[in-house]
Specification:
The protein is an alpha/beta fold. It contains 11 helices and 23 strands. It has a 9-stranded mixed β-sheet, with helices on one face. The protein has an 8-stranded parallel beta barrel with strand order 2-3-6-7-8-9-10-11, surrounded by 6 helices. Strands 4-5 form a two-stranded antiparallel sheet. Helix 10 runs parallel beside helix 11. The longest helix is centred in the middle third of the chain and has 22 residues. The chain binds alpha-L-arabinofuranose. Alpha-L-arabinofuranose binds next to loops.
Length: 499
């Protein structure tokens, strides 16, 4: 059995976890909205047409913030189409996903739904085909109390109370040539500065996220961030990062090393933010919004064959397997370890479209990736402790030497709980993990939850929903202040210590 030692000290803290790192994302695309969260006429629908079964699964994930309405979709979106009497809302051709959008769900319905599942909206504005004026109008519609054209329009549409949306994405992936209204960094930087300025003049309490690179591999990565920050440093609060992964070569060890790309990506963007801060002699720090991340590749081929211009096509419906859940668990650990600078992160997406939750006309179920997200979101809140792991490594083509063990320790002082998240990426051998916990007196092991499966390709489906499911059967003990745990080969683990 391989061995690893984890060193931690309760006085060395990375930082406090911002709960918004457990955010997610609902885009108008595929069956995320229509058929996913909203399906009037379904036996699962409430009086407003929203699915109660989906809402329950979302609620259980404790998602504090949900990005909306896109994604690529937002870059051609006219938000006015989605408010007011439903009978007069237009059907539009959505160029992002070559689909039809009937606008039967829009800003007001989504804001109400988000509230009902315990989430806040992270609203994205269209800086592709539109600009600062429309973004400012949408903000006025959402947040202004009353007495102006757009706030009174909201009230006349039946929403007296403002939606109080605090977090705003200024466009989506504007560095990408696939994006409607794609811009150069300088063009986007200027647009974002003016949009942020107008929005903060109207509502100084809002926080603005500017688009960083659509992935670490973008040819403009680095220079894009620098230029956008040079232009808009004073108007924005966060810079966004997006990254998706896939086991396209069928090399699982390599695939599982992918969270190290996220690690590098975050470190690089933090360096750029801090270098621009230094250049400007600014006191203000720009933090990170990792507002799209996930595994995305299973559906690529099927999507290429889809019929265009239909409503709510089966788009981006990745069926996730067990190894995907391991990587999702590792990415969450990486985000925790960067909690000093990553303040927002969104698992992309939430329902049906590259999502932990799937629906059909007959029910809703959890995919494999639901589980690491569920546990990390519930128990990964508090202070992340600085940890150093001594353990075996392996060679990855993309990332060099990477550890078999990914781990993070979160201390929730208020609840008197220490939670250790750990992934053993070794596909052949178990690992014995030891950790000296003498500083944390009085704790005992409350549970050791394990997610594993003999078959990395095993999936959860509507007819077989529990093939990959967590078990509370981990082997661990705490004796004389030392924690010893067996992390099974290819397993995700959560060891929870309470008093
Ligand atoms: O989440 C799916 C798509 O991925 C989003 O619309 C876009 O922002 C990204 O390219």
């Amino acid at each position: 059995m391989k061995k690893a030692v984890l060193h931690l000290d309760k006085y060395f803290k990375v930082g406090e976890v911002d709960k918004r790192i457990f955010g997610s994302f609902i885009e108008h695309g595929g069956r995320a909205v229509y058929g996913g969260i909203y399906q009037p006429g379904s036996p699962f629908a409430d009086e407003n047409g929203f699915r109660k079964d989906t809402a329950e699964l979302v609620r259980n994930l404790r998602v504090p913030v949900i990005r909306y309405p896109g994604g690529n979709f937002v870059s051609g979106y006219r938000w006015e189409d989605g408010v007011g009497p439903k009978a007069s809302r237009p059907v539009r051709a959505d160029l992002a996903w070559s689909s039809l959008e009937d606008n039967s769900v829009g800003t007001d319905e989504f804001a109400e739904w988000a509230k009902s599942v315990g989430s806040e909206v992270m609203m994205a504005v269209n800086l592709g085909t539109r600009g600062p004026e429309d973004a400012k109008n949408l903000l006025e519609y959402c947040n202004f109390p009353s007495g102006t054209y757009y706030s009174d329009l909201r009230i006349s549409n039946g929403y007296r109370e403002p939606h109080h949306i605090k977090l705003w994405c200024l466009g989506n992936e504007m560095d990408g040539p696939w994006q409607m209204g794609h811009k150069t960094a300088a063009e986007y930087g200027r647009t974002v500065a003016e949009t942020g300025r107008l929005m903060k003049m109207l509502d100084p309490s809002v926080e603005c996220v500017a688009c960083g690179s659509s992935s670490y591999g973008m040819p403009t990565f680095g220079s894009w961030e620098e230029t956008v920050l040079d232009e808009a440093y004073d108007q924005i609060d966060y810079l966004s990062l997006h990254q998706y992964f896939g086991n396209r070569e069928g090399d699982t060890a390599e695939f599982l090393a992918s969270n190290n790309v996220i690690d590098r990506f975050i470190n690089s963007v933090v360096s750029i933010c801090d270098s621009v801060q230094s250049k400007r002699h600014s006191k203000k720090r720009i933090n990170i919004s990792f507002d799209e991340w996930n595994v995305w590749y299973h559906s690529n081929e099927a999507d290429g064959k889809l019929k265009k211009w239909t409503k709510a096509p089966h788009l981006l419906e990745d069926v996730y397997n067990f190894e995907d859940a391991l990587l999702v668990g590792s990415i969450l650990i990486t985000l925790l370890r960067h909690c000093d600078r990553v303040k927002v992160a969104c698992l992309a997406q939430l329902v049906n479209v590259i999502a932990p939750i799937m629906t059909s006309d007959t029910g809703a179920w959890k995919q494999t990736i639901y589980y690491p997200f569920y546990y990390t979101s519930r128990y990964g809140r508090g202070k992340v402790l600085e940890t150093v792991a001594d353990g075996p490594v392996y060679e990855s083509k993309r990332c060099g030497k990477v550890p078999f063990l990914d781990s993070a320790a979160v201390w929730d002082e208020k609840k008197d709980a220490v939670t250790l998240f750990a992934v053993n990426k070794d596909l052949r051998e178990d690992m014995e993990l030891t950790c000296d916990l003498r500083q944390l007196e009085g704790y005992r092991i409350a549970e050791h939850v394990v997610l594993t499966n003999d078959d990395g390709k095993a999936v959860d489906t509507e007819s077989d929903p529990d093939r990959v499911a967590p078990r509370k059967n981990g082997v661990s003990k705490l004796e004389n202040g030392t924690l010893t745990a067996v992390l099974g080969k290819h397993s995700w683990n959560m060891i929870r210590l309470t008093k």
